[in-house]
Design a protein that fits this description.
This protein is an all-alpha fold. It folds into 2 domains: about 150 residues, Orthogonal Bundle (Helix Hairpins), CATH 1.10.287.1490; about 70 residues, no CATH class. Helix content is about 80%, strand content about 0%. The chain has a two-stranded parallel ribbon. Helix 4 links the parallel strand 1 and strand 2. The longest helix has about 80 residues. It binds zinc ion. The site of zinc ion (ZN) has 8 residues, from loops. Zinc ion binds next to loops.
């Protein structure tokens, strides 16, 4: 039994290592997912900006058409003014020109505003594209580093698991189950050493002398009365075990 506990103690060391590696892999993968999300968010923003730009360009084209129409109309009205035959026609023609000038000036202002808006939108898009490119290149560096690390860890995990399972097989099934149950309930610490003062290393409670004697002399499986972890005393003499 002493050997069994010693094996369990070693197994616990391996299990701790495996868990750490697994957590590291998960952390890397979470980071990668986060970066992919950031890039996707950037893409969505650029797409929305591009749609706004497209709409503004259409409005600008419309304003430019209205501007050229207004200029043409004013030109025609000026030509008509040359051919007036009386005072009434002259006044009417002048009024037409005044209103045409007002219209032209309004459309001109609108067209200029839209031109400015398109330009502004283009510079906003350029900044967003630059941000995305930076994100992408940082991501490339990160991805290749992380991918390499994750790959190494996965390889290590695989060979560690083989060692772990081989070791676990040396432990009697009932005891192994007990170990695994305590391990899952006691945050990765199922087998604890008893220190020089006879205390449980897991929770620091004093272990009753009788229990200590049993463990030390026969390698019996005993649990800490406080935290219920399996007690292990390192360096038990073979002679003592056989007593
Ligand atoms: Zn304890």
């Amino acid at each position: 039994m002493a050997n069994q506990l010693e094996t369990l103690f070693k197994l616990q060391g391996l299990d701790t290592l495996l868990l750490e590696k697994q957590k590291t892999i998960e952390k890397y993968e979470a980071e990668l997912a986060e970066r992919r999300q950031a890039i996707a968010a950037c893409d969505a923003r650029i797409e929305a900006l591009a749609a706004t730009r497209k709409e503004l360009v259409a409005q600008r084209a419309l304003a430019e058409r209205r501007l050229s129409d207004a200029m043409e109309l004013l030109k025609q009205r000026r030509q008509r003014l040359q051919k007036v035959r009386n005072e009434r026609e002259l006044r009417a023609g002048q009024e037409e020109i005044t209103s045409g000038q007002t219209e032209l000036s309004e459309v001109e202002t609108l067209a200029l505003e839209l031109m400015a808006k398109v330009e502004e939108m283009e510079s906003v898009i350029e900044v967003a594209r630059k941000e995305r490119a930076d994100l992408e290149s940082a991501d490339h560096r990160h991805v290749s580093d992380a991918a390499e690390r994750v790959q190494t860890l996965r390889r290590e995990l695989e060979s560690d698991r083989g060692t772990r399972d081989g070791m676990a097989e040396q432990v009697e099934a009932g005891l192994r189950k007990k170990y695994e149950l305590i391990l899952s309930r006691r945050s990765g610490l199922a087998v604890v050493e008893v220190d020089g003062a006879g205390c449980c290393v897991g929770c620091h409670v004093q272990i009753p002398p009788q229990t200590l004697i049993e463990v030390r002399k026969t390698g019996a499986v005993r649990v800490c009365p406080m935290c219920q972890r399996l007690l292990f005393i390192g360096g038990i003499e073979v002679d003592a075990v056989s007593l």
